[in-house]
Amino acid sequence: MTSFAERPMSSKPNDCLEGGGDGAAPSTGRVFNIQRYSLNDGEGIRTVVFLKGCPLSCPWCSNPESRSSKPQVIRRETKCIHCEVCSWDVAECPSGALELVGTDMTMDELLKEIEKDDVFYRSSGGGVTLSGGEVLTQARFAIELLKRLKRLGYNTAIETTGHGNTALLMEMGKYCDEVLYDLKIMDPETAKKTTGINLQRSLDNFRGLIAQGTHVVPRIPLIPGYTMHAANIQAILDYLSEFDLKEVHLLPFHQFGANKYETFEMEYELKDVPVPTDNEVEAIKALVEARGYKVNVGG
Amino acid sequence: MSTPRIERLKADLFKDKREISLERALLYTESHKQTEGQHTLVRRALATAHILDNVAISIRSDELIAGNRTVKPRAGIMSPEMDPYWLDKELDIFDTRPQDQFHISEEDKKIYREELLPYWTKRSMKDFINSQFPEEIKAATAQKIFSVNQTDKGQGHIIIDFERLLGNGLGALLDELKDHSVKNPDNAFFSAVVILLEASIRHIRRYETLAREMAKTCGDDGRAKELLQIAALSAKIATEKPEDFFEAIQLFWYMNVILQYESNASSLSLGRFDQYMLPFYRASVAKGESPEALKEYLESLWVKTNDVVLLRSTGSAKFFAGFPTGYTILLGGLTANGRSAVNELSTLCLDAYQSIRLPQPNLGVRVNELIDREFLRKTAETVRMGTGIPQIFNDEVVVPAFLNRGVSLEDARDYSVVGCVELSIPGKTYGLHDIAMFNLLKVMELVLDRNKDNTEVTFEQLLSEIRQDIRHYVKLMAEGSNICDIGHRDWAPVPLLSSFISDCIDNGKDITYGGARYNFSGVQGIGIANLSDSLASLKAFVFDEKRATFKEFIEVLESNFEGEKGEQIRARLMNRYDKYGNDIDGVDTYGSDILRFYCKEVEQYANPRGGIFTPGSYTVSAHVPLGAVVGATPDGRHSGDQLADGGLSPMVGKDQKGPTAVLKSVSKLDNYLLSNGSLLNVKFTPSTLEGEQGLNKLADFLRAFMKLKLQHIQFNVLNADTLREAQQRPEDFAGLVVRVAGYSAFFVELSKEIQDDIIRRTAHEL
Questions:
Q1: Which stretches of B196-276 are assigned E, i.e. beta strand?
Q2: Is the peptide bond preceding residue B372 cis, with omega within 30 degrees of 0?
Q3: What's the ipTM?
């Protein structure tokens, strides 16, 4: 059995979706993972900071632990050595099977961790990618962090669905070398029903970033039965045609996140969905390339 | 892709089971019996000359380069003058022992036991060393606190001055030495060198004769023509200096084989091949030789370097699995005036490797701030093939490390590697690079045990006692090493080899008598990863969190975590405390402080040749036998389990933040002090390195490695599944090359234990 429980601590005040862009940055960010030596989320060798909290609920999400804004205690069955009585205390668990997902870090703590790979960023033109969750749920903290990273001369990127406060996203875009922007389901009703996204807002934000000169790279997750069908891909490409963009990333569906659903005792609708075949991916790649884009599979 | 000839040469090398040839031992002994009363140097020279004149020689089919140490490929040879006893003990198990098997016939076993063993009993170097070791050293080596190596075979671990050989030719060198000998008639060293240079010339002429005879009878016009070319070439270079690539390589290879007869030693390494061979390569290109012919010739040489294997004892084979002979080469680097030394031959050496993919020569690349990007990419491309070759060395650390040992700037820029990762100045150093290994973790164990009943013990006190013990045992280790040093002088001087090491001729002395310009004794400190982890866990568990008294804790270790709460305690030690390799200052500092202390102790000692001791940190495959003698440790390691591999690598599975964090942890060690060499294994899986982008990111990663001032790194780009498959179906993976430590070996020829270890090493896949 695997279990998880939300910690009885106050949830962190999010940058609410509709709120204005003039609030002060909170002193801490809630981070659920820091991944060093990441090679696939932007230029060079990177560190990816995963911020916790996401307003959407994409059924294919590979980071389900990122959704809740609250810290959560989980127990990993594979690590558990089954003490006679479980303390349910992360600090006391001998095997580390009990784990706190979501740690509040101050800006300085986070920067200290990020700067550990300074030499790798500088040697490779790499830097830092903020991911989530949805980075917009901690927008003010993220903006402050990105400013500090630019000050250090790092390449910066964020991954977002654009489902959030427009003013904050525009501000964030100013400090990004690259915004990796997810475009998923293009029918507003289906999109709303499946993921909870306000598609119109997301698309307006996409346009807004480009208008202000931010370098935006559209990313299309290829999810069988959800995004990966001809009409949807065509709709995305039609939408993109109004912009002068060079590159599109395709992210084929994978099952790496499947066991996380079990750990979190969450329903996982895509359990039995096979990953796209190479041929299927190639066909879509050809479709996108036919519109003149450079295509990067896997991001 | 290789030519069909190269493919055939390669296949022939591995067709039959390896055998042991008694020839060298018998000829050596035959001569030795007749030279009683003469000077050791002369006796040694006469014995070697006797071998050179009488050993059976062969030119195998398809060979373009002549010179075989044994008629049968990859045969082991014996040197009973060093230690006849282990050979006797293992005669009956060579065929079946777990690591490095060799076949020996019943008849040869009989000859060994009836002729060789009785003669060398009480006459060998081993007898001398055993009689000289004081009890205290014997006790410490029995406890495996340190080991003194090379007590049973030649020293090797040296690079001769190939420029001297190729730039002068044997005739001119003989004239020079005769001149010295005439002027110094009492100097046994000069007499010995003259005997050996003359014998070398005769030996090469034997090949000329053989090639002509074979040409007459071979019945194939094409092959006959090749054999006559070999004959003509051999006739010329027997005395004259070579003028093109073919001549230079042929002379070079003859001398490598000849030196093998003089001292049956590991790692008479090849140094900076792309530098000293360049003029000859360019001469051939200028003559209009086709690039294909030159590449095929180079590939022939690469195949040949796999023919010479070392017969090791079972004990030694555990430490150095896969019988590496260490035809180590470093490419690129710096010129004497500090510019990038990368040239077209550097690239061709990697290309030839990419075609043939055999573990020897053990290629390495020197990186520095000035390295050409294209060559760095070629290096990354070769690394990405996943065979562990080339290994990478960092000029930005190694050059200053040598300056700190009193080496001149120009010599330091000329450094290369002997054996696996041992740093040496080619043609100028007798470094005894593998004279001893020191088990730092064992010292910690002794200190903890000794304090078991000390109720007042503090963490600081334990640290201080560990330092005191290191100081004590380093002294004993140096003493033991010096006895072995003298043993080699009195039993196994190497006058021919010495004649190619500066400044032996000027000094009129063999290297074993202190004739070389640089005289080091290299001693390795092992166990730094487990030591760091253990100290961090011990401090947290006992002294900070007070989860047990010190005595209770030691009892848990003594029980090997078997008691009631044993597994829970072990889980906590393994999982809840910081580990070396994750870029966490607290734990990394324990290791770096103690390793630094070890280095500063080591460098205080002098050897009988007028040189100093220098520290290194690499295990090759010794992390398995050294772990076997250490009980359970506070890092959660079970009694007898292996130590961290490599030397500087984190403990297996404990590096959980990826390779950048590993490099950062290693960068906190004072790598400048490890002037005898260090070793870091990092395992990558191919998917992280695919495509153009992957290649550039790997090249950038190497630049970051350089900037972090690490000394050495090597990669295995393999996934665990491939290796498990290879374990299941070894026959399908006969040619699979993996990196064991400082060298690559055939995976299927390694013992199951070492195979499992390689599989376990963390794969950094994201």
A1: 268-269
A2: no
A3: 0.91
Identify the DSSP state of B69: S
Chain A residues near any Cβ of chain B (below 8 Å) = 35-40, 44-45, 79, 81, 83, 93-96, 116-117, 119-120, 122-126
B288 neighbors B363 (Cβ within 8 angstroms) = no
**Beta-carbon count within 10 A of B690 CB:** 12
- Does the beta carbon of B569 lie under 8 angstroms from any beta carbon of chain A? yes
The two structure tokens encoding residue B670: 């004072």
Show the tokens assigned to A97. Answer: 């099977």
What pLDDT score does B764 carry?
42
Lowest mean pLDDT among A258-272, B269-283, B297-311: A258-272
Name the band, by pLDDT with cuts 50, 70 and 90, for residue A2.
very low
Would the CB atoms of B572 and A116 count as touching at under 8 Å?
Answer: no
Q: For the segment A53-81, what is each residue's pLDDT rounded down to a tens digit?
A: 999 999 999 888 899 999 999 887 777 89
Distance CA B18, CA A227 (A): 60
Q: Give residue B736's pLDDT.
A: 67
pTM above 0.80, yes or no: yes
The count of CB pairs under 8 A between chains A and B is 73
In whole numbers, what is the pLDDT of chain B averaged over residues? 93
Q: Are B695 and B689 in contact (CB under 8 A)?
A: yes
B88 and B106 Cβ atoms separated by less than 8 Å: no
Strands (E), chain A: 4-6, 28-38, 46-51, 72-75, 98-101, 103-106, 127-131, 155-160, 178-182, 216-222, 247-252, 294-297
Give the three-class secondary structure for B394.
strand
Band of pLDDT at residue A169, cut at 50, 70 and 90: very high
φ, ψ of residue A294 in degrees (nearest 5): -80, 130
